[in-house]
Design brief:
361 residues; Rossmann fold; 6-stranded parallel β-sheet
Length: 361
């Protein structure tokens, strides 16, 4: 198959998106398919930091003026399928949606997420209303959905379009990761959190509260976009955004990986964050505050602590968290334990089968 991976992504933001695109497309190529990446970006100044090639990055000045080369290059490539990471409608996308078979990847409940963001400021509110008025222009012109959870695939505003769909959790190529965790003799457990701290559903406020209650027992290493947070607690450190080489030095200090703990804030219950897959690939047991799509239909492994997806899930379970951290402090997760859960080499095959069915009609 000839596949185009189409998405909008500023060159140095949301590194999880970057890793996911690279991992997916590399697997597709490894399995014998032709793949072209089309990364639409608003930034020109950070090209040296982009992991994508110059001919894979397309710049646009605003939402109305699409990149000039994009349509030309797509027509020249003439793909069998375009895999499109969902974003609000842009006029230049209309030609692509109408002329090619486009499958949309759904990573969240976009309606709830954008509505939550709309409360921040007037600009966000305008974006939400624009999205709400134009989303049908995308959905009615696509040929199928790939959702990262069953919950997303079965949202009413997705089901109403009666398009073919499949649920496949996020995954990583574990061959690209090395176990970083090492056993340590000290009593304090080091907790790693990576993510965008401005996203309310990550629950950074809850993590700060947990740190306050566990001084001398847990130490928190917080890596991610937006370094505005400061506390007086001696057991939490904020690093801001770090490149991979930099944050691997932090990972080596850690014993446990902490995932999203406030997903309820956007009224969702299932997720499969890439950062949690990274934690596991680095050898870290995990604490999460939602049902991970990977484990929904199976018994939770001993190295997963799943807290209730509710407002008080941290404050009501401090003792349970401490007990888990103590038990798992020197437990190293090996790749053969996790590959069936998170390895792209296994999970991406189902996606390609779905593509073939769509192409064959």
């Amino acid at each position: 198959m000839k596949i185009i991976y189409l998405f909008t992504h500023d060159l140095i933001k949301h590194s999880g998106v970057t890793k996911k695109v690279i991992s997916q497309t590399n697997i597709w190529k490894k399995l014998g398919h032709q793949v072209k990446i089309c990364n639409i970006s608003l930034q020109k100044s950070q090209i040296s930091l982009s992991p994508f090639k110059d001919n894979e990055v397309y710049y646009r000045n605003n939402i109305f003026n699409g990149p000039k080369r994009l349509i030309q290059d797509i027509n020249k490539y003439n793909p069998d399928i375009i895999y499109f990471r969902f974003e609000p409608y842009k006029p230049y996308l209309g030609k692509i949606l109408k002329n090619y078979k486009v499958i949309v990847e759904l990573n969240t409940n976009d309606y709830k997420e954008m509505k939550l963001h709309s409360k921040k400021n007037f600009d966000r509110k305008i974006r939400f209303h624009y999205y709400n008025m134009t989303k049908s222009l995308i959905y009615k012109n696509i040929v199928g959905f790939v959702a990262v959870t069953d919950e997303i695939a079965n949202l009413p505003h997705i089901l109403k379009w009666k398009k073919p769909s499949i649920s496949i959790p996020n995954s990583i190529d574990i061959n690209n990761y090395k176990t970083q965790k090492i056993s340590k003799s000290n009593n304090i457990s080091n907790i790693l959190f990576m993510g965008n701290l401005d996203h309310e559903w990550n629950g950074i406020d809850k993590i700060i509260d947990l740190a306050k209650k566990t001084v001398g027992k847990l130490y928190f290493h917080i890596i991610g976009l937006n370094n505005k947070y400061r506390t007086d607690f001696e057991n939490i450190k904020f690093y801001g955004y770090l490149q991979k080489k930099e944050y691997l030095e932090i990972v080596k200090k850690c014993d446990i990986g902490l995932g999203t703990v406030a997903l309820h804030r956007k009224q969702m219950f299932e997720a499969c964050p890439l950062k949690v897959r990274e934690y596991l690939a680095y050898g870290l047991p995990i604490i999460i505050g939602y049902s991970d799509a990977t484990f929904v239909n199976s018994k939770l492994p001993e190295w997963v602590l799943e807290l209730p997806n509710e407002n008080n899930n941290i404050s009501n379970n401090v003792g349970l968290i401490l007990e888990f951290c103590k038990k798992m402090k020197n437990r190293i997760i090996h790749h053969d334990e996790i590959k069936n859960y998170i390895d792209s080499n296994i999970l991406e095959i189902n996606k390609l089968v779905f593509f073939k069915k769509i192409i064959d009609g």
